[in-house]
């Protein structure tokens, strides 16, 4: 996640934009390779192993972040205990997967960008007209094609790759790229996404991971320590913990251990 990686990603973005502007029908030409005109459908969508691989890819991606989810949930329930994993690791993995795989792909774009999926366009036995990736005025009402949520989730594995030991990091980046391309390729073969949907998902996920990594680990003004994250979660969870201890057990646990005497934070005071 250094400057070289950013320059490579920006260069690939320019190549992508140029290619799909010069050849606006490139998406259709690529999708046609996966379409069987005789049976008028995408035959790979009926292959059992491909369906299993598609679903399994999402389980693999979320398995990387599962320890962070568990650690944060336990911390929020029992803030008196330290996080079970490094605070920055949990924050980095959770924030990047939520941004790239959930918010940007599914909330910000797929719900508002009316691009039909390949399986829905007229040329592939659908009812909608094809629109290029930059045109949001398609006829898809919801859960649309641009950009690929599953592709973004698979390419998100750049995040755990960025945390790999330095000697293994280049290989981890290659593995994350291959995983993203394979998952995105399956979506294309199923008629679920165009090539541009998959390419954009990879670029977006990489840029999100690069930016959040810089914010947490690199830039002096914003970088955090594991103790910073642990203390922030303690402050966030303490009011609920304090209420539960008082309500259920009649115990007064006092203010958060990360709050100095006399300091106010949110609804807490040292005298309450």
UniProtKB/TrEMBL annotation:
Transmembrane segments: 59-77, 89-109, 198-216
InterPro entries, A to Z: PAP2/HPO, PAP2/HPO_sf
SMART domains, per database record: acidPPc
Residue span(s) of domain Phosphatidic acid phosphatase type 2/haloperoxidase: 90-213
Signal sequence region: none
UniProt cross-references to Gene3D superfamilies, sorted A to Z: Phosphatidic acid phosphatase type 2/haloperoxidase
Pfam family, one: PAP2
Source domain of life: Bacteria
Keywords per UniProt: Membrane, Transmembrane, Transmembrane helix
Ribonucleoprotein in keyword set: no
Protein name per UniProt: Putative transmembrane protein
Source organism per UniProt: Afipia carboxidovorans (strain ATCC 49405 / DSM 1227 / KCTC 32145 / OM5)
